[in-house]
Write a structure and sequence with these properties.
Elements lengths: L34 H14 L5 H23 L8 H4 L2 H9 L4 H16 L3 H12 L6 H6 L1 H21 L12 H8 L4 H10 L1 H20 L9
Length: 232
């Protein structure tokens, strides 16, 4: 269970080496990655081996599948399929996924699957893949709320079930299943440039509250709009 030990725990002493261990940051923290990301890391090792690039191959595959799904969505809604180039040729696909191996590619794939499922009115499936996205990055949780009105109970129930199942898989550590996310949020504030700029003017806590209010307001506005079609 990746949430059981922090890197500097004595139980993991045998895994330390002279090349990687000295460069591990936040050694006293448990992982901040949600269960879906951790499961993906494990899956990458099983499929692609123990090399440094194992996760990168998985993420590149996810990015490619996302492109395929989006081409299908664009054709289904009668939009020019070449618009997929906005994703396929985006510089971040090269710098952050191919080069740096960020797990965001899995969220891109899940959200592409959300659009594909929505375009054929499969609301339950759309909710499930949105839940999978939230198991990799927490941000997609707001999609479950924002799309609840148009997605119906099936959408919300499937999304909530996916998230619950993901955390249940690692529940043997109890409340530690959230890792060191609280410490990360307190120290990094999610790396927000907006927060960094505001906190110099109104203070740290006020900036956090203000930005949280803005995000919630946006989610509320979107939630009360119609979402019968992909275009909406």
């Amino acid at each position: 269970n990746p949430y059981r030990y922090a890197p500097d725990d004595a139980a993991l002493r045998a895994l330390r080496d002279d090349e990687i261990w000295p460069n591990v940051n936040r050694k006293s923290w448990a992982t901040v990655y949600p269960p879906g990301a951790e499961a993906a890391f494990f899956g990458a090792r099983v499929v692609f081996g123990d090399g440094v690039r194992a996760t990168t191959w998985l993420f590149l595959l996810a990015q490619g599948l996302a492109v395929v799904l989006l081409v299908g969505v664009l054709r289904r809604v009668g939009a020019p399929p070449e618009r997929v180039a906005l994703l396929a040729w985006h510089p971040l696909a090269v710098s952050e996924i191919a080069a740096n191996g960020h797990s965001d590619a899995l969220v891109v794939l899940a959200c592409s699957a959300l659009l594909a499922a929505w375009s054929v009115e499969r609301r339950g499936l759309a909710g499930f893949v949105t839940g999978l996205a939230a198991l990799v990055k927490l941000g997609p949780l707001v999609l479950i709320v924002a799309l609840a009105r148009g997605g119906s109970r099936r959408f919300v129930a499937a999304g909530a079930a996916a998230v619950a199942a993901g955390y249940a898989a690692y529940a043997s550590v109890g409340s530690r299943v959230i890792g060191s996310f609280a410490q990360y949020l307190d120290e990094e504030d999610l790396g927000s440039l907006a927060w960094y700029s505001l906190q110099q003017v109104v203070g740290r806590d006020h900036a956090r509250a203000l930005l949280a209010g803005v995000v919630l307001a946006i989610v509320a506005v979107v939630a009360f709009r119609a979402h019968d079609t992909v275009e909406q």
